[in-house]
Structures are given as structure tokens and as C-alpha cells.
Amino acid sequence: MDTIKQAGNFVSDKVNSATSSASKEANKDVAKDSNQNIGDRVQAGGNAVKDKFDSKAYDASAEANKQGATH
To answer: Which InterPro entries match (predicted)?
Structure first.
């Protein structure tokens, strides 16, 4: 039963990682856009950093769940 749960968590973590990566790229684009006001650019830059951190955390969690599901 734990194997099924870990497999489900693996899939969930991979989806969340992909979502965070896409959000990071969108925020990077806003941060680089000189047509945006400075407040939006700074906020987007901060959000991009947070999204990258989240993506790495989800990847690590997914790997742990993958290892748990295969053993």
C-alpha cells in the first residue's frame, strides 16, 4: 500500500515541479520586460527565485518517493 502512495506522491511532485518551472519562466520574462513598472519587475524576479526553489524541492521529494516506491 505504501508503494502505491509513494508512486502517487511521485507523480504529484513531478507535476508540481513542472508547474513551478513554467511559473519561473513566466516570472523571468516579466522581470526582464522593460515595459513593466519596476515594482512588477522586482516582484516577478522574487517570485522566479521562489519558483526555482520550489521546483528543486519538488524534484527532491519526487526522487525520494521514487526510491521508496521501487524498494
So the answer is: Glc-repressible_Grg1
CB atoms within 10 A of CB 16: 17
Q: Report helix, strand or coil for 34.
A: coil
What size, in residues, is the chain?
71
- Phi, then psi, of 36 in degrees rounded to 5: -85, 155
d(CA 40, CA 48): 12
Q: Residue 35's domain spans which residues?
A: 1-70
Residue owning grid cell 518517493 = 65
Q: Specify the number of domains making up the chain.
A: 1
Each residue of 37-55: b (16+ CB within 10 Å) or e? eeeebeebeebbeebbebb
Instruction: Answer whether 0.85 is exceeded by the pTM.
Output: yes
The pLDDT tens digits of the residues spanning 18-39 come to 999 999 999 999 999 999 999 9
